[in-house]
Amino acid sequence: MIGIAEKFERKASTRAPALQEVRLKLVGIDVWSTAKMSFVVGISLGLLSIPTTLLFWMILNQLGIFDQLDTLVSGVTTFSGNGTGGTRSMLSFGVVLNFSIIVALLNVVLAIVLGPLVALFYNVSASILGGLFIGLARN
Q1: Is 99 helix (H, G, I), strand (E, B) or coil?
Q2: Global pTM?
Q3: Helix (H) / strand (E) containing 29
Q4: How many angstroms separate the CA atoms of 70 and 100, rounded?
């Protein structure tokens, strides 16, 4: 006859371990893949930044912020003797659109250049220091 303790021991030995852990070591990043990925991310962020900037400009325009800013600047410049103002023309829709496009293009270029550089710097540091350890666990 099998005792209760032996039954529990058999049951415990047949169970899967409660926690499985895997340790991975990241020793290198492919520079060309990073360049392609940073290009896609840069283009996506550039395409998202232009409508976001224009939407933000439209909200500020509807709230009358630019008129209040123009009144404030003209009051300050009239007091100082210049009397020029012109903030409304500096922040017109066309100027903001052009500035937004230029900034988006610069962001795309910077993303394309900096993505592979970061991967290259990581590869050099990983060859010197040994890489990055990543621990994954599954219950």
Answers
A1: helix
A2: 0.66
A3: none
A4: 21
Whole-angstrom CA distances from 23 to 30, 72, 131, 134 are: 21, 61, 12, 6
Determine the 3-state secondary structure of 25 from DSSP. strand
Q: Write out pLDDT tens, residues 72-100.
A: 877 776 665 555 556 777 888 899 999 99
User: Which amino acid type is present at position 8?
Assistant: F
Give the C-alpha separation, 38 to 30, whole Å.
Answer: 12
Q: Is 2 helix (H, G, I), strand (E, B) or coil?
A: coil
Rounded CA gap, 20 and 93, in Å?
A: 58
User: Which amino acid, residue 101?
Assistant: I
User: Which helix (H) or strand (E) segment is 22 a member of?
Assistant: strand 20-26
Residue 134 to residue 78: CA distance in whole angstroms: 63
Long-range contacts made by residues 125-129, C-beta under 8 angstroms, separation at least 24?
Answer: 126/26, 126/27, 126/28, 127/27, 127/28
**Residue whose token pair is 């939407």:** 55
The contacts of residue 45 (CB under 8 Å, 6+ apart) are: 104, 107, 108, 111
Which structure tokens are listed for 94?
């066309």
DSSP 45-87: HHHHHHHHHHHHHHHHHHHTHHHHHHHHHHHHHHHHT-----H
